[in-house]
Amino acid sequence: MIYWAWLLGISVAFVLLERLNPARKSQPILRSQLANDLFYLIFNGHLWALLTGGVIGLVATRTDSVLQSASLFPETGLLTGRHFATQFIVYLLVSDFLQWSVHVLLHRVPFLWNFHKVHHSIHEMDWAGNFRFHWMELVVYKSLLYIPLLWLGGAGAPLFAVAVFGTAWGHFNHANLDVGIGPLRWIFNSPRMHLWHHDASTEGGVAKNYGIVLSIWDYLFRTAFWPKDRGPERLGYPDDDRMPTDLPRQMLYPVFPAKV
Ligand SMILES: [Zn+2]
Ligand SMILES: [Zn+2]
To answer: What is the 192 CA–ligand 2 centroid distance (Å)?
Structure first.
């Protein structure tokens, strides 16, 4: 099944799950910015993903060939010929750690933080927030991920399975769902943990909980923050009133910030 069909199916599943057991019951279904976020879902999840994937994938494959011919890259990777489950687990661990690292950079490098502000300008969180991000983010993530993943030398199917699993878990992290995951929280990220990443105060959000699928990197590198008895008071970041609400200016941010 092609990726967009998975994306559609996973999205519909979370629409239904949020109706069954919402964490914030007073949050409207047709929240502000939902139309923008549905556009981001189609654009970032399909159109822009295909274009950047094609161009950056081609550059990475060519770079791989050049490095191989210069004997700087192995012809047989660590995962070549391995069982599907082994490839899935290694791809998940490596890609999730790389994404955690890129996410840290998006917060700590001021130039990159400008783009990541679009994701953090959401004030009412639900599953659709997962794909609310600036188009530059895919360029940064894919440019830094593709060459190390190619180096592993595995097959396309387990890598695709990791992408689908990551999409489902990303929707889960952003979903308005009242669910805990028990002791699995030491391994996996969750809606309650990720909500603190979006905290507008300096208490949680600005430098905490960078995890994508896994929470282990945040526990390992001491960036985990999760007071379990409550949630953040406000989502966003300190000067988020400068983020425009209309889609064209959000996509061109920070060129045309909102006037305050
Ligand atoms: Zn972030
Ligand atoms: Zn998020």
So the answer is: 11
Domain ranges of the chain: 31-251
Indicate left, alpha or beta for 107 from its phi (over 0: left) and psi (-120 to 50: alpha): alpha
Of 9-13, 58-62, 187-191, which gets the smallest average pLDDT?
58-62
The Å distance, Cα 6 to ligand 2 centre, comes to 20
- State the burial class of residue 118 (Cβ atoms within 10 Å of its Cβ: 0-12, 13-18, 19+): buried
Find the 126 Cα to ligand 2 centroid distance in Å: 10
pTM, two decimals, is 0.94
Pull the structure tokens for residue 23.
Answer: 């964490």
pLDDT digits (tens, 9 = 90+) for 223-257: 999 887 788 999 999 999 999 999 999 999 999 99
CA atoms of 86 and 47, how far apart (whole Å): 30
**Contact present, 237 and 205 (Cβ < 8 Å):** yes
Q: Which residue has the tokens 């769902």?
A: 177
Q: Which of 217, 219, 211 is nearest to 195 (CA)?
A: 211
CA 104 to ligand 1 center in whole angstroms: 8
